[in-house]
Amino acid sequence: MTEAQYLSGRLLLAMPGMGDARFDHAVIAMCVHDDHGALGIGLGQVREGISFHGLLRDVGIDPGVAPDVPILVGGPVETARGFVLHSDDWGGDGTVHVAGLCALSASLDVLRAIAEGRGPSKWLVALGYAGWSAGQIEGEMRQHGWHAVQGRREILFDTPVENRWKAAWRAEGIDPSHLVAATGRA
Asked: Is residue 171 part of a domain?
């Protein structure tokens, strides 16, 4: 595996005191990481004021049998653009398989399939994404901004939004209450 592929399929956890309030306690599912940069979808914050049924109606889709779930803040880039992270038992045009963690779709086809009851068995919807230019995320990780952990489907799909950050640390054997906001020098 090359360094550029390392983060695909992993979860990025914001370190305490990283200095960017938009990413406080962030959990990011890393979907693409290559020589051109990285793209991830935030999993740790609900977007207020919009529900899944409201989103479906906004794009002209009858909600049908879909549950009315919260929409996540996927990140600060293109906040009106929607993404569906889902189990790999469904795929459509443009679906990207994310290194053993999930699949990512950004077309209306996946929303229609969910509304009609023929979509993926597990899914979540986010507006926006987190993006980094080539080499940027690696630099942020060296500066105590992020920590990469194993991507776990149970954290993605089965853990309540507000518990994902702590659950991801604990799954790595780390008690997040022991993390500090600054690093030392030896």
From this structure: yes
